[in-house]
Amino acid sequence: MKEVRVIGAGLAGCEAAYQLALKGIKVKLYEQKPIKKHEAFKTDLYSELICSNSLRSDDINNAVGLLKEEMRHLDSLIMEAADKNRVEAGKSLAVDRVGFSKYITDVINNNPNIEVIHEEVKQIDINTPTIIAAGPLCDGDLSKEIKKLCGKDYLYFYDAVSPIVEKDSIDFNSAYYKSRYDEESKGDYINCPLTKEEYAIFHDEVVKAKKIEVHDIDSEIYFEGCMPFEEMARRGFETLLFGPMKPVGLEHDGSRPYAVVQLRKDNAIDTLYNIVGFQTHLTFGEQERVLKLIPALRNVSIVRYGVMHRNTYINSPKVLNNKYQMINYPNIFVTGQISGVEGYVESAASGLYGALCMKQYLDGKIKNELGADTMMGAMANYISDENITKLVPMNANFGIFKCLYKGPKKDKKAYYVKVALENIDKYKEQYV
Questions:
Q1: 171, 136, 160: which is closest to 261 by C-alpha?
Q2: C-beta of residue 278 within 8 angstroms of C-beta of residue 229
Q3: Which of 306, 329, 353 is the last residue in one of the domains?
Q4: Which of 245, 124, 255 is nearest to 192 (CA)?
């Protein structure tokens, strides 16, 4: 029986292992938890969510919403877990993070075609079919092995996570429920408004706040979609007002606040809330000090502080083809955020598609590939585009989607969705 080695039980690794197991392929899934665990992780569960509990928009006419629907059509384990553990978050798909990870862990551990091996992988055998899904926190000997395979085309960027607070510590004399632009319902987000004077004090203190020192690096490269809020503040007085503190669409009692901090539900029992867009690497004491300058959070109880952690990725256009397969080492596939995709859903989707391509490769030839007129195929084409001189990690977006359309602009996305799902279903029928 055919066998594949999968390194890492994160979102991409679990999705890849599951897809291969569904096809009758034996999988050896290597996961270093609990033997070795990065400080950003809090549990020994697989597919643990770090930055946020949101998988972003669930609107099918949104790029990531379409990607999620493509994954559902291809029997995604990650989407199954998300749908079964969702919590209210307006038009977004957010999950109870513990329930979500536990569901995936149980499915993986109980699949007879998957053997989970809890050890740190220190060598990569280029003669053994392998999917590297080590994640953006990859380090140690495995990182050195990947670097050896990729040569100089090995990069990194830095990322940060948002604080989580207790709902009971939020002052609802100031805070109110509302989803952006939602005029009809109470809304699923808790909003913490600030006047111009309150914002000015907050901004001034954030700019002066002390950061955690980052050692042993030559520079810090931030992915713009995950910029620490203190770095945004340092770019200008109004920068936060066009980012995580944007007040547009959050009017209350007939007026618009000068600035708003939004909180999103983080667990199913509605006791914990994530501060949206407030990923940070301020010291713990400074995080508490500046957050308490927000009127609704003056007595806030922080249950998890934001922390800074290293994210690693490869320069994929020089290393991978559009099937997540290494150009110079065809037995090796690289999926997840280390491949250059950005985001929870994108990471899982790369694991899914990489596994389906691995299955065709084991059968003798990858007969077909998803085109850029599917979101999953567009992502794979983006990270392998040889015309890109410097890879920037990319979320799913219609800017990388390629499909000829000449109709009215208002119908464009609906057309893209129709074409994409038709192509996904055709691909599944013929090759999955």
A1: 171
A2: yes
A3: 306
A4: 245
Helix (H) or strand (E) holding 345: helix 344-362
Q: Where are the alpha helices (DSSP H) in 85-195?
A: 97-109, 140-150
Per-residue tokens: 118: 């809890």
30 with 78, same domain: the answer is yes
The H or E element containing residue 303 is strand 302-304
Cα-only R_g, the chain: 22
Distance CA 108, CA 327 (A): 29
> Residue 391 sits in a domain of what CATH number?
3.50.50.60
Q: What is the DSSP letter of 337?
A: G
- pLDDT value of position 135: 78
Nearest to 133 by CA among 353, 318, 310: 353
393: nearest Cα among 348, 351, 349, 336: 336
Segments forming the whole domain that contains residue 106:
3-158+311-431
Q: What is the pLDDT of residues 87-129, one digit of tens each?
A: 988 889 999 999 999 999 999 999 999 999 999 999 999 999 9
Q: Which of these ranges, 27-41, 93-107, 218-232, has the smallest mean pLDDT?
A: 218-232
Pairing of strands 130-132, 3-7: parallel
Contacts 24+ apart (CB under 8 A), 105-109: 105/45, 105/46, 105/47, 107/18, 107/77, 107/81, 108/9, 108/14, 108/17, 108/18, 108/29, 108/46
pLDDT higher than 50, residue 230: yes
> Roughly how many angstroms between the first and final C-alpha of the chain, as a whole number?
18
Higher local confidence (pLDDT), 372 or 395: 372
Q: Tell me the average pLDDT across 234-255.
A: 94
Asked whether residue 5 carries a pLDDT value surpassing 50, the answer given is: yes
Q: What is the DSSP letter of 428?
A: H
